[in-house]
Amino acid sequence: MSVAERLIQLGIQLPQLPAPAFNYVSARQYGSFVFSSGHTPTVNGELTVRGKLGADVSLQQGQEAARLCVLNCLAAVAGVIGDLDRVESVLKLTGYVASAPGFVDQPAVINGASALIEEILGEHGRHARTALGLAELPGGAPVEVDLVLALR
Amino acid sequence: MSVAERLIQLGIQLPQLPAPAFNYVSARQYGSFVFSSGHTPTVNGELTVRGKLGADVSLQQGQEAARLCVLNCLAAVAGVIGDLDRVESVLKLTGYVASAPGFVDQPAVINGASALIEEILGEHGRHARTALGLAELPGGAPVEVDLVLALR
Amino acid sequence: MSVAERLIQLGIQLPQLPAPAFNYVSARQYGSFVFSSGHTPTVNGELTVRGKLGADVSLQQGQEAARLCVLNCLAAVAGVIGDLDRVESVLKLTGYVASAPGFVDQPAVINGASALIEEILGEHGRHARTALGLAELPGGAPVEVDLVLALR
Question: Class of the B3-151 domain?
Fold first, then answer.
């Protein structure tokens, strides 16, 4: 099954990303490698949720935010490589979680991201990952994700 | 001297890592490159120390934790490539230190990681590195490390 | 125009970096890829500014600090590859901003870094990027930057 077919099956449409707000790019390809920018849970450039895990944002909200981050990352990658079927491997996912003091369940939040990647890319989505608790994230985002991918 | 011989000389045994707790992997190879997941100072999946530098965890404890993170990273890499003699170069080590307000000696903590890498891999272990002070880390870990490596 | 000519036109001289304080390196090359270490806003190894955005350090100071981080990163890369004209692409810039509670304008700080990269490297400097709010950075630095680059 192609990624496009899987997205339809999942009822997911990759978003159209607005251009970055400054002179950087949403993702950058070199040869077989693609690095995505860090993406936050935005829709049409607006955050859908703000705040920190362990304070204002629930675990479930955080997981949903993490899914949205991944969707934006994959949209950015698709914008550069055209077709997500070209992804051989997601080498690395780094998940950044805005964390109130004492919140240490970053992995559970980022599981939302890891799960969606596998839903969309299957075996090709199996990634190494790092989950971290940040003091603050851009615009008050609760989660940010970036990816390193390899193409076939 | 092979890495295996050096490990024996150092009295170090690479641990057997439990499988990750979710659908990601401990390290991911693509061609000549390997990305490790972020690893915390666990033994048999349990953290050996919890807390923050500058509060609950001493510099020496932090350095020991950083060594354990590296050991887990290298075990993860060995699990993927089989033999650490295949490592041509540790390209990048990123060291994440859970930091209480005002603790700014992240480099001294991460020196524990850098030192062990060189003990084990010699010249092939010479790496670029970034040391950072995080608000929180998974499970209350004081340190987390991830690696990017190149194979010969 | 060569990078050297552009630097002269900009009135910028790449600094001579002191050796790292421990057994890591300022940047590491493998084939077509270069990973820089994280660099803070130092001149001759001394931070020019300390503190956090949102508390002790203004946005403008933060942007100037971010420029200095980039200058140090590029000096490190030049020290490894010899000639910045060999840079085909800055694949990834990660910008770490020491952030007081409630400071969420990390992207504006890191724009200082992104702008300088484009001034110096032109189109070859177009990068994916991640901007993050850290609890603390080494030595009390307000900003730290690292790069992944590809060579032609």
Answer: alpha beta
